[in-house]
Every structure is written in structure tokens, then in C-alpha cells.
Specification:
By secondary structure, this protein is of the alpha+beta class. It is about 25% helix and about 40% strand. It has two domains: about 10-30 and about 110-234, Quinohemoprotein amine dehydrogenase alpha subunit, domain 2 (Lipocalin), CATH 2.40.128; about 45-105, no CATH class. It has helices at about 10-20, 25-30, 45-55, 60-70, 80-100, and strands at about 120-125, 130, 135-145, 150-165, 165-180, 180-190, 195-200, 205-215, 220-234. Helix 3 (about 45-55) runs parallel beside helix 5. The two termini are about 30 Å apart.
Amino acid sequence: MRTLSLPLLPGVLGLIACTGLFDSTDTASAIDGVGVGDDGVDQDPACAAYLDCLAAVDAETLASVQGAYGTSGTCWADEASASQCAAACEAGLATLNDANPNEPACADGSAATAADLAGTWSFSSDDEKDCEGSTVTLERFDLELTAAGGDNLDGEAIASYGADRNVYETDVDFECTFVDGALDCPAAKYDALIYWGVKGKYDGTIDGTVTLYALDGSGNTVCTLRYDAIGVRD
């Protein structure tokens, strides 16, 4: 197993020196699905799609629900509320899609299957994130998806991130699902300190988030860096 040199994460590096690496049991408790950390869970792709649709057809309602369903909304405080909100967003998007069948922003992608996503997807993002005083950018995220039966997909990604004028390349294997137009590849590890996750709504492209998790030597999530990203098929 390769171990990253991490001058990009000074706080993490100091903790590693004190505590050493941790085993897979510690890792499982630190990362329990995509986006679980000290700052809650990721916005569900269904809610991102619902808000995009509202922005196109009902700006007044959009303003009233942004505080709950938005990226930093109250829905994402924990897994239980996130699940309830995701279900509400799926129902809301379906209703809006029925009412606005000619609005591309309201297409729910539900007709697509996991097999339709097979192939290589390149994700890009202009976001810059801070981790322990270092600015971290998503340089590359290429995800190859292979149909694995039913709603399941196997994923292999080559991901690069930049910090402190250095670029670090990683590779990671995912077990993904595609349900109701949403791709979900829960957090998977590159090594004991770096995890990746990706999720998004499919409508010809994959509109969602690529998440980089940096852990310390005790298995605690030090930084959760979520990049708004668009995936296009190569």
C-alpha cells in the first residue's frame, strides 16, 4: 500500500508523527458512508436537482426551501434527516417534472439505468478548499464505471489533487449504485489517510460533488473537502 507524503496537510502530518497509522477497523468508524464527518453529510443529489428545477420554474419557492435543502441546509445535519429530505426532494422533483415536462432542469433522469452510465467520466471543478491552512484543488477525477448487475456499478478512479504547489495522484476503487437518476459512490480509501467519494444526478452529464477526506493517524476526519463538479463522458 502506498502512503502519501503530506506536506499539503500540515496538521495531519504532525498527528501522524505522533500516533502512527491506524487499521481498517479505525477507518470504518471514521468514515461511515459518503460525507459523514464532524460537519454532517453531503447534500443529496436529488435535492440539488430539485433546487435546480425550482430555480428554473419557481424562484419564490426556491427562496423558501434553500435553508433546508441547500448545500449547507439543515437537512444535512445527520443521516436520519438527510434521508427524509432526500425522499421529499425526489417526490418534489417528480411533481415538478410532471408539471413542466419541457423544462430540461426538471428532468429526473429516472428512465436511465446503471448500464447507461458504463464508461469513463471526467469530473472537473474550479473550487478551492482549505485544509489546515493549505489550499487544496481538485486537479483530476476520472471515474471508469462498469455495470455490475441491477442498480450496481463498479468504479475505478484516478484522482489528483493539488496543494502547496504540489500535485498528488491517487487511485481508488468504488462500489457504486445508480437509483432514480442518482449516482452514489460511497467513501472509499486510497490509503489510511485519504478517502474519496462521489455522487451526483445524471441527466446526460453527472452533476454533483467529488469529496476528498483527509484523516489523521487516529482515524479522525481532519478535513472534508467537497468539490462541486460536473462529470462528462469521455
